[in-house]
What we know:
single chain, alpha+beta, four-stranded mixed β-sheet, globular
Amino acid sequence: VNIKVNSLIQFAKRARNIAFKQTLHRFLNKNKVGVVLVASDISENTLAEFNNHKKVKFITYLSKQELGNVLSKDEVSIVGILDRNIANQIIKLLEGGNEDGKK
Length: 103
């Protein structure tokens, strides 16, 4: 599952459909984020900054270091996937468990 999710995240990055912490608020306020991936070791303060956005699904995924590796950065604590189709696929993979062959 992780390999598929990671490649979807990388695809979104190449398509410039990704928002990092600095720009994430703006996209959340415009309701343009499909899913927000949160590192498992994110600080409480950073997470608290985004608590008022209830319409978007927040999913804990990997550590800051691992998420950074997927996105070719040092560390990434929070990232938004802007493309709804990619976001929905990520949600399905991370919450659906073993639904690999089913649609």
